[in-house]
Specification:
The protein has about 100 residues and is mainly alpha-helical. About 50% of the residues lie in helices and about 10% in strands.
Length: about 100
């Protein structure tokens, strides 16, 4: 399982291919169209869009998907990101530890 940072630092758990696509959509929303590899990599790193320790191959996959999004508007990128994210099994689920009256 891999993941991508959602808003406010929460992570979405998903397979690697989907994490690359979501990161690419986030890049398109943040930066607009692809300009250079260096600029895209800086943004990926700044916003920590991939799981910690992601390989250089993972970053290259994101760039591949990002280039395909050329011409997409910010709104279209956001809507597509949200549509993909909300289909994830654990999306919107927040787990909390609870204790009974005895503290167990």
């Amino acid at each position: 399982s891999s993941g991508i940072n959602a808003e406010y630092g929460e992570r979405l758990q998903c397979d690697k291919d989907l994490s690359y696509k979501l990161a690419a959509l986030a890049l398109q929303e943040i930066r607009g169209d692809y300009t250079t590899e260096e600029a895209a990599m800086k943004t990926l790193t700044k916003y920590n869009l991939l799981s910690p320790g992601a390989s250089s191959a993972a970053y290259l996959e994101v760039l591949h998907h990002y280039k395909i999004l050329q011409g997409w508007s910010r709104g279209k990128s956001i809507i597509n990101y949200l549509n993909k994210a909300t289909e994830l099994k654990g999306y919107g689920v927040h787990l909390y530890q609870v204790k009974d009256k005895n503290g167990v």
